[in-house]
Amino acid sequence: MDVTMVGLRVLREVAERGTFTAAAQALGYTQSAVSRQVAALEQATGVRLFDRYPGGVRLTAAGLALLRHAVTALDALDAADRELHGTDVDTGSVRLGYIPAAGAVLVAHALAVLRGQRPGVKVATREGTTPSLVRALRAGRLDLAVLSSRPPHRSPDTDKPALHVEPLLEDALAVAVSSTGRFADRAGLTTEDLLDETWIATPTTADEPLLGVWPGLPGRPRIHHTARDWLTKLHLVAAGAGITTVPTTLASAIPPGIRLLGIDDLPEERRRISVVRLPGPTAEPVRTLVQALHHHAAEIAG
């Protein structure tokens, strides 16, 4: 099988980014160059590596198999390069991804615990959506990801091998409203209250769910403001620009001027926050960080 390291890097980047265009931008290539590299890989391996669908691409079973070997080869080459140039420090490192709702409270405190226990461990973090973080795990760019799920809490993807999922804590969704607005004196909300409200939501793409609007509300929500950052959304709420949904675990990080309310005539929206990784043995720094995440999650739940 005559494959090149450039081809394997392109494979990993496309797998992580989900589109040829995004992979080309990350690598500094043209889209046609990425397409040619993928075509050359498919010709060299004799199998189809990606399924094409509107909005992106997805690895086939054969593509997933090749990706696992590509990650091993590319990581080994990177390690050799660091060692040859004297930059390979044996203190351990962890690459952690997390959804925005987990960053301010759960992840930040877990990292503080880790620094106290293992000050030599280097942790690199990145925020992202669940689909992007799962792709990064599969591509070998992350060691761990802190993700959220709704009942019945299925695996974040259906690819093989199945991801290892450890629940950290259960959470509930609430509606963030201005403490000086028309809901200032309310103990709860109803669906009728929300029909004409303006929502502040996270921008969505083809494979990312709409966040910031209560799931299952009748009609089409009026979204006048979009922001990925939770703090920005909450300050917009405090300014009276609209309302948004927020996990109750963020209550300790919510700025002044905001109240959290439930919706009385709809079922409670539960969420589970879990730490997810690829199956198999884990390095000691990774295990230590997982323990720190569990420890702080237990403090939050308690």
Characterise this structure.
The chain has 302 residues and is an alpha/beta fold. It has nine helices and eleven strands. The protein has helices at 5-17, 20-27, 31-45, 61-84, 100-117, 130-138, 191-194, 230-238, 284-301, and strands at 50-53, 56-59, 93-98, 122-127, 144-149, 164-178, 198-201, 222-226, 244-247, 258-261, 270-277. The strands form three sheets. Strands 3, 4, 5, 6, 9, 10 and 11 form a seven-stranded mixed beta sheet that branches. Helix 1 packs across helix 2, helix 1 (5-17) crosses helix 4 (61-84) and helix 5 (100-117) crosses helix 9 (284-301). It is globular, with a radius of gyration of 22 Å. The chain starts with a helix and ends with a helix. The relative contact order is 0.15.
Radius of gyration computed on alpha carbons: 22 Å
Please outline the major beta sheet. 7 strands, mixed
Low-confidence stretches: none
User: What is the rounded distance between the termini?
Assistant: 55 Å
Say how many strands there are: 11
Q: Averaging pLDDT over every residue, what do you get? A: 89
The topology string of helices and strands comes to: HHHEEHEHEHEEHEEHEEEH
Number of helices: 9
Briefly note the structural class of the backbone.
alpha/beta
Strand content: 15-25%
Shape from CA axes?
Answer: globular
Instruction: Give the helix proportion (percent range).
Output: 25-40%
